[in-house]
Amino acid sequence: MGFSFWYLGSGVNAFFFPGALSLYHREYFLGLRQEEITFSTDRVWLRVRGSYINDVELVDDNGTVYGSYSPYFIGTVAMFSNRDLGRMGWAFGVGPGIMYGRIHNWQSYALTLNAFARGYFNDAEVLITLQNVGLAYSSESGLGKVFTLPEVYAGGKRFFGNFGLGLFSSVYADVDVDVGVYAGFRLPFAEIYLAPSYKYLSGGMNLQMGSLVFGYSYEYVTAMGYGTHRIGFSFLFEKQRVFERTIERHGRILAEHERRLRAVERKIKEMEDQARTYALRLVEDAQNTEDPVSALRKLEIAAALLKDSSLDSRIDSLKRLITENRRQEYLKRIRTLYNRKAYSDALAEVYLMLDEFPEDPDALKYRRLILSRLKRKASQEKAQEEARKKVKESKVQKARRLLDEGRVLAAARILKELPDSREKRKLKERINRFVDDLMAKAKRAIARKEYVEAKYYLEKVLKMEPNTEASNLLTWVIQKMKEDASTLYVKALSHYQKGDVMKAYIYVKQAYELDPENERYRNVYFRLKNVVEK
Fold first, then answer.
1. Full-prediction pTM beyond 0.85?
2. Distance (Å, rounded) from C-alpha 93 to C-alpha 47?
3. Which of 15, 40, 351, 527 has the greatest CB tally within 10 Å of its CB?
């Protein structure tokens, strides 16, 4: 918004509206009128003012009216500031002026110099001006015989919240001195003020509606007993300019965003090419690997970046082979134990097999055979009880082995199925140590502002056990995560080509959650998920 200073006490007003156009009309005594146009930019201020009286009578020495004339005066002032008028702090300006006046057949001209010092602050405004210092010419008196009428004005006000107070003084042509007080109240859309002085009583208001400011003031000259009205408006181009600058700034931001987006896309393509090279090397290694489990893992990791239907079929074949091998291993152990007549051990293996392969016909067949060998009911119940005990021991051993391998989540799932026992409590203590380690990793990741990594650790803790601290930290971490999906995907690719599948999964998972419609993120996420969450 612009701002204005009133030369209270002299009837003269100076406007400083950065990027504004003002039109005002004033009514004086004896039919005197004044029109004023003010235009300003950030550093240039231009005012044109004209005063006139219509149809003044011409009277001869005998008092006879023999005609009429219209005296008028026109003045133009231009000011140039050393800095933007709309900025906080001090601004200084200087500029020329031109005056022309005509009364009947008498004319006068003047060239003037004008200057100002203006301070504009958050809660205060100060203005000091020097006007109309110059040289005049009169058609009757000649050059230098008629002098301009200089004026010095100094004023300032300070706002305390919405209420403002100030002082001002003016010296006009060394003959008219005035001092006064300003008191005003301002709102976002209006300002109402009263400015009594030694010789004048002034007051008025400014109302703002968008870019348009309506102004009215009244000034009463106490010494002469007459008053003047001043009314008009200002249009603030500043709002439009601010809007245009905002559009321009947003255009630059958009262009920079698009440039960065293209750079990210190039980076993604480059890293995807490097990751595909790594994936092709994994496929080659899998072909030379005799262990089907190791070969399957390599192919599943490679499939995250390679779209190859033949690769999917090879993965399915290896899965079927591994599954069948595990099934045959169970049957081999069951058959051996059955032939040795170790029926409780054989029955325990049958139960373990049915946990992994429900409704398997061979496992069901051996269960019937074993129970049929134990004809007495007591023998059957004893064998089943021993088998369940051995199944429990086998599961405890499996959980212990998984913990040794670092597969804590899988071990935690097994322990949830088992009844309370001393062995289970010992393994739970080991899991608790893993939980403490994960919490420490999450906190270190938070300290590094690696919120995605911290989120992964905290979610893993909550899958293992209910944990209030992890739940609260996870809520906070989710609020702090503000990275975009493409950046996360680039990080995933970086870890992938380094062979760190776990971290690659952490970042691609978050990228997928932020942008689930992205096919690349979705494919890599689900394929790595199959590898990591086994």
1. no
2. 14
3. 40
